[in-house]
Model the fold of this input.
Amino acid sequence: MIQRPRTSFVFDLDGTLVDSVYQHVMAWQKVLDSEGITLSTWRIHRKIGMSGGLLTNMLLREIGKELSQDAIERLQSKHADEFARVVRDVRPLPGAQALLDALSKERIPWAIATTGRLEAARPLLESLGIDVGKATVVTREDVQHAKPDPELFLVTADRLDAAIETVTVVGDSVWDMLAASRARAFRIGILAGGYGEEELERAGASRVYNDPADLLFHLDEVCTRDRFDK
Done:
């Protein structure tokens, strides 16, 4: 009998399991406005999914501005404060909890990997019913380099004791897909974060679904067949 490799899932958080991308965008815009930096919301949206520091650097590069490291850290801190004010309005995306429950029921390992810091991620995880003390959760504090560097997903795979080639990364941004591709994981794109299907596929997504509910409905297409083709 052929022994199939164990499948594991690694999920991004914002825009993949919780509907929080646009709250992040508006929080960043408010913070940048307070510093006299005017940027259209679409420009900010295109960078969501990176770490705060990298996001700030790339946005400023686009408009030809430079800030000191202290100023960039101040922007990040102000963004965290602003997002904390609206986090209570964030809801799980359709099917998110059901998808995680289905994987747990079938004893398929899963983890959360986010470029956000634990303080910001904790209320979002709690909205999904995830116990941070029991689940495998990797945040910005756990890695030196954020997406699109592959380190976040490699560290998460290691925490799951899984070979990265057997891991399926689920994310909503091109930065998720690029990082997962560099890590050599299988890649699934979610449209709920605002990126288009072609953009995600161009960045390396092998499959693209509307939201977690859509992925759950088609889980037999991307998961171990003997568990989901009954």
Q: What stands out?
A: Residues 39 and 63 are 8 Å apart (CA to CA). The beta strands are 8-11, 110-113, 137-138, 167-171, 186-190, 207-209. The domain at 21-89 is CATH 1.10.150.240 (DNA polymerase; domain 1).
